[in-house]
Amino acid sequence: MKKSKRSKRVDRISNLPDSILHLILSSLESTEEAVRTSILSTRWRYLWTALPSIDINCSRGLIRHMTYYCNKREFDEFVHSVLSNRTLGLDSFRLCCLNYFDMSTIEGWIYAALLQKPKKIHLSFSPRPGKNIELPHCLVTCDFLEVLSLKLYRRRLRFASMLNYITLFPRLKVLELNNVELPTKPQGFEFLERCPMLEDLRLINCVIKTFMVLSISSLTLKTLTIVTHNLMYYEELCDDGTLVKKKFHRVSIRRHLVISCPKLIRLEYASGTFNYYDFNNLDSLKKAVIYPEPLVAEVNRGRLVSELFPKVSHMESLSINHYFVQCSHRERHTVFPASLPNLKTLELTTTIDDFALNVLICILKCSPNLQSLNLTIQEEISMTKGYWDLDEAETREILTRCLKRVEFLEFNGEKQKLEIARFLLENGNSLEEMVFSWRNKVTYLKKSMDTMNKVSKFDKASSFVKLIRHLKD
What strands, in cross-sheet order, belong to the sheet with 255-260? Predict the structure, then answer.
């Protein structure tokens, strides 16, 4: 009998071009997983060294519980090995080591990473003991870095030490400070004026312990984001590296926010940290997202709105929430400008009640060129004056003059939203599109067609308006 020939197995994946294999490696969750592929074959041994990004996190994969010295040493050796075996320059370097390592070790990793000339660096660390953190000279002065993100778990960054340099981060365009304790002196942010190309500043869940004036002044800044979600709680690292939530003690402290950025295009403020405001030189602002938190609405009703609106009457897009509406309500006759001539898009996330309706009417009255209205109505509340019972001729005139598009976000077929849709359809002579965006797939399948049938029977001032239903991912 003839012996059957065994068919040779062909490794078709390994025969793919390097560019395809690099794409496969890039789709893996972490650098740790990419490095493990080096054992597959000779072809795969050094493929990972050419990846454009490094992402190492001590809380996953290689070392999940670093309770012993050998594990810390293993992680240190792994980071140095990954950085020293690079064959091509880096585009992005991301490292999370929590509070397992001291600053001298972290500085060594930063220096090794900078030898690869990455354009983006994201660092999450909190060295022990809890001293102020000073960024290494090689990071502050490197002339190729474009994006820097720091998450320091409530450690204080020594901004004052940066003032020793004439120029900081020569090519940096984006700076994100996450969970960083901000300086308590007004000159703490003077370093911004020494960053010649900075365009985007993000302050995310940053901590302010005492009285301060946070002054953000920059001739180059185009986007500013100040966000402190969940004002009542903050995260803190324990000695074993675990994160715990702690509650803030509410203390009446004067915290003053000063913004002076003549080239600022977009401002996002979602915070309850500050209670005094001073906005200057915002002549270029086009989009404002103002989501004050409850503390601001309670303690400083009207102050945020009265200071902001006179300085941004030229903006084109405004997004506000229910607490902004609360801030505006008592001051609505004085805080709104005579005209918002450039406002074309208004996004409102609120509970529709009497005073929310009044504030919305005030904005509509001073927005003669409004084209798009996006509404997210959080809950239904009974109103004394009925559903959109508007007799103001001026308001109706605005709705009929320019409003072209209305979108209901988080729509679930509620009666109140349908009444608002009816009013807008009956008065919007220029309406071209009304969109109902659903989030819940089950509700969408059950109710959306029935809802569209109801809306299609409403009287319409515009003969060419389109009714659209949409399920958002």
Answer: 212-217, 255-260, 276-280
Residues of the chain with pLDDT under 50: 1, 61-70, 230-232, 249-251, 297, 332-333, 384-387
Residues 195 and 329 in one domain: no
DSSP 3-state of 416: helix
End position of a domain, from candidates 254, 285, 316: 285
Residues 224 and 160 in one domain: yes
Q: How far is CA 245 from CA 41, 153, 215, 232, 236, in A?
A: 46, 12, 29, 10, 6
Going along 367-440, which residue ranges are E strands? 372-380, 405-411, 433-438
Residue 223, token pair as written in the block: 């986007």
- Using the 8-state DSSP alphabet, how is residue 156 labeled? B
C-alpha distances (whole Å) from 84 to each of 111, 122, 131, 279, 354 are 11, 19, 30, 48, 64
Of the three residues 341, 357, 389, the one that is the final residue of a domain is: 389
Quote the DSSP letter at residue 184.
S
Residue 65: what pLDDT? 45
pLDDT tens digit sequence for 255-313: 788 899 999 999 999 887 787 888 888 989 999 998 887 755 455 555 777 778 777 88
129: cis peptide before it, omega within 30°? yes
CB contact set of 94 (below 8 Å; sequence gap of 6+): 53, 54, 55, 56, 57, 121, 122, 123
Q: How many CA atoms lie within 13 A of 427 on its CB side?
A: 20
Strand boundaries in 391-465, DSSP class E:
405-411, 433-438
In 3D, which of 103, 132, 74, 100 has the Cα closest to residue 238? 100
First to last CA, the chain: 62
Q: Are 241 and 98 in contact (CB under 8 A)?
A: yes
By C-alpha distance, which of 255, 297, 261, 259 is closest to 276? 255
Residue with tokens 């409403």: 458
Beta carbons within 8 Å of 355's beta carbon, 6+ residues apart: 325, 326, 329
C-alpha angle 184-187-191 in degrees, rounded to nearest 5: 115
Indicate whether 281 belongs to any domain: yes
Same domain membership, residue 460 and residue 357: no
Within a domain: residue 237? yes
